[in-house]
Write a structure and sequence with these properties.
The protein is α/β, with parallel strands linked by helices and 295 residues long. It is built from twelve helices and eleven strands. α1 crosses α2, α1 crosses α4 and α5 crosses α12.
Length: 295
């Protein structure tokens, strides 16, 4: 299927008008009409219903649109990757990672990676899962290190390992002495949470809601380190990753398991669907897997 014909179809569908689409493509309207007709002939289906000065997609057009969009996005991402790697001498790996994983996993992974790929520069982007997914689809990133259960639509994920979730409590809390905490103790308890924009914050909120546990949220923060400092200051309790607990180990903050509930998150590598990872990307993911499984 000719890529120019697909581009003509998507541009027309987005514009809702042959004249506007032709202007956006920098071609004449008759030329655009001819391209649409050739695509319809090739597919054996009418893609647009024409009315007045505008057009709307038929059922066949609506079926084609998401597939055509994905093909065009992948072509654009491939071209961008080739240009980018050519300009940098193929020595740069663009990695995205969520903030609740990056500081605990990437330093060790980078040491392992650079032991065998010393000439490859890693450009790191830390951001929310939604932002990283968009950048990956656009071709700005080569891969993303993130956590489930965030839904990475139209992307492929590869499981690297799991990370337990534990409850952080002030040293003065009864659970600190007991070495464990119950759901009943979380109900109505003062709580410090991550902003829901973090997939971890969303996961914890979903867990509590599904079990009719309603902590009294007294503070939200965009930074996990801040959450743990607030717990240590006796502001409230929080459900946090075990990998973070091991790095923020202070006398003021104690980490305990939740009784009868095995809380965890899956750490994953995320790729563009159908993409073939480069040798460097595969090596980096393997290094992250080694670190995650070593916790």
């Amino acid at each position: 299927m000719d890529i120019d014909l697909l581009r003509a179809f998507v541009e027309t569908a987005d514009a809702g008008s042959l004249s506007r689409a032709a202007g956006g493509l920098g071609i004449s309207q008759p030329s655009l009409s001819g391209q649409i007709q050739r695509l319809e002939a090739e597919l054996g289906a009418v893609l647009f219903a024409r009315h007045g000065r505008g057009v709307t997609m038929t059922d066949a057009g609506r079926t084609l649109y998401p597939r055509a969009r994905r093909l065009l996005d992948e072509m654009r991402a491939t071209a961008e990757a080739v240009r980018r790697d050519g300009a940098s001498g193929s020595g740069v790996l663009y990695v995205g990672a969520i903030p609740t994983v990056a500081p605990y996993v990437l330093p060790g992974a980078l040491r392992r990676f650079h032991a065998h790929h010393a000439t490859t520069t890693v450009e790191l982007r830390e951001d929310y899962s939604a932002v990283l997914a968009r950048l990956l689809l656009e071709g700005t990133l080569d891969l993303v290190i993130a956590a489930l259960p965030y839904a990475f639509d139209h992307l492929d994920t590869e499981l690297l390992g799991t990370d337990a979730l534990v409850v952080a409590v002030p040293a003065s809390h009864p659970a600190a002495r007991a070495g464990r905490i119950t759901l009943a103790q979380l109900h109505d308890a003062p709580a410090v949470t991550l902003d829901p924009a973090h997939c971890l914050g969303e996961q914890v909120a979903g867990f509590c809601s599904s079990r009719q546990v309603r902590p009294s949220v007294v503070c939200r923060s965009a930074q996990l380190a801040t959450v743990l400092e607030l717990v240590g200051a006796d502001v409230g309790v929080s459900i946090v990753p075990a990998m973070a607990a091991s790095r923020h180990n202070t006398p003021q903050c104690v980490y305990v398991p939740l009784v009868d509930h095995d809380l965890q998150r899956d750490i994953v590598a995320v790729w563009r669907r159908g993409a073939v990872p480069s040798t460097e990307a595969r090596a980096f993911v393997d290094a992250v897997r080694d670190v995650v499984r070593g916790w």
